Amino acid sequence: MMARTPPNTAFRSLERALMRRRFRAVEVPLRLEFAALLTLIAGFLFWRIRVPLDGFARAAPPAQTAALVLGGLALLALAGGALAGARHATRLVRVPPGPSWLALPIESRALARHLAWDSSVPAALVAVPAAAGLVAAFGLIPAWWLGLLAAAFVWLLIEFTRLGCALAVRFAARRAVSPAGRTPLERVLMSPPRRRPVRDRGAAAWRQLPARVVMMRKDLMLSVRATPAGRRAALPLVLGALSVAVWWLPIEPPLRHFAAFVLALLASTAFAEWLVTLSGTDPFPVLRSLPVGVGVVWSARVGWAAAWTAALVLAHTLAARPLAGGAHSVFLVWLGGAALAITVLGVHYGITLYPRAEHAQRMLLLSLAIAMAASVMIPMLGWVLLLTAVLHSARRVPRWDRLEAS
User: Fold this and answer.
1) Are the CB atoms for 375 and 383 separated by under 8 Å?
2) Residue among 336, 300, 338, 340 nearest 315 (CA)
3) CA gyration radius for the chain?
4) Which one of 128, 263, 272, 379 has the lowest number of neighbouring Cβ atoms within 10 Å?
């Protein structure tokens, strides 16, 4: 008789296999780019933390310096737990894993641990600033204290992610439509996902339109419905409206100028995320079976990017009247160039990493974060890095025809 494998052992084997598969799904150049971005971010954070921490350590005993570092690590662990909890709640509420998990002969506790682990993987990104903080504290406190602080951070991160995921299950169980008398996780898994009723629109009307126009119409239809793209469509519009409304605030002109530009960049980033999400909503087998090439997909999405940039520039042209003639033109040129570069970068990542929209989202945010960090360190360097990212990702666009479903 064969020995029965414990559920926890089986789940750990499954998790290791999932991590290997996800790692192999990322191309080697993309892995190197991802590692380089994380290294640059860690180096920038080290540079920003070391100087003030050194000044604090010169005026305080080592114990207080260690307490300050521990407080920062605790905040990072708390942020990681909040990220894991928010992601876990989103996955359970919007698209529950379904009753298929309940058909397996496993305990609810083991299943809850596995699902929480899957939602907690992105929380490991907080280890990057944590490592930068620990390296910045080297030489300011005893070396063996750094080992204790690192162990404390790992423990806090594990506990906070567990707490965040447990609260997410409780939150999802309160919204679940399922019979009582079950554990919170079982109630969530037995509850169907929340969907809007589908209206009968009658017979389909076939029209002859250019392929890129059809793609753009399809994108618009997905954005006004209860889809992932629809849930992201409102944020860029709200941020864009706020960036325009700033010009009427009774604040100092330089501050008003800066706030309008920052909000416009945030709005463009949200719009780029919407473009990436649109790429992820296209069913891979269906899209690849159609006579649609990368040129059609690229031109349709870049059309949205150009339309967004034109609308944003036009709105600020009418609203930014307090600026003088030369300053007004310079502001609009920089705003239009930045908005177009950010949104086109989102288009490129959405196409080159299709259908892995989550990877594209991470790469987009990391690229923009490193460009922002570089601008803080050396003026104009961030814009050079942003343009380089756009050109480098453009070279990968023709490979879309060789993508496979795996």
Assistant:
1) yes
2) 336
3) 24
4) 379
Q: Please say whether the beta carbons of 364 and 330 come within 8 A.
A: no
d(CA 92, CA 112): 11
Q: How far apart are CA 207 and CA 273, in angstroms?
A: 30
Measure the CA–CA gap between 119 and 123, rounded to whole angstroms: 8
CB of 85 within 8 A of CB of 164?
yes
pTM for this model (two decimals): 0.61
CA distance 262 to 268: 10
- The CA distance from 112 to 89, in Å, is 13
pLDDT digits (tens, 9 = 90+) for 27-65: 677 677 777 777 877 887 888 888 888 888 888 888 888
Q: How far is CA 25 from the centre of its chain?
A: 18
Cβ-Cβ contacts under 8 Å for 313 (sequence gap 6 or more): 332, 335, 336, 339
Q: 374: which 2 tokens? A: 């570089």
CA gap 298, 319 in Å, rounded: 31
For tokens 């100028």, name the residue: 257
CA geometry: angle 404, 298, 391, nearest 5 deg: 95
CB 96 within 8 A of CB 177: no
Report the distance separating Cα 365 and Cα 49, nearest Å: 22
What digits encode the pLDDT tens for the residues 170-207?
887 776 666 666 777 777 777 665 555 555 555 556 56
Which amino acid belongs to residue 309? T
Domain boundaries, the chain: 26-190, 211-402
